[in-house]
Amino acid sequence: MGYVYRTAAHPDGAGDKPDYEIKGADIYRTDHHPLGPSTFPEYVVKKGLIFRTAKHPDGSSALPEYVIHGNLIYRSYYHFKGASEHGEYEIR
Hints:
single chain, mainly beta
């Protein structure tokens, strides 16, 4: 699918380098992520919804953490910070 970049709506500001890479339905951290790269998927995409996997530091999620709308990714209602009004990430 591509790479995931922070937008200006993200609390840490826009990013010029990708934080995540999407391979099929799996999402991995890249070298540019603050925690460094991951060799295992931390998130999985199912029908436009993004869930944490068991390998995520906070464990897996039964409810979606993020929602994909077009090329933007929004926090879902179930995210611990609540839903976002603006896309915090962009898929390129």
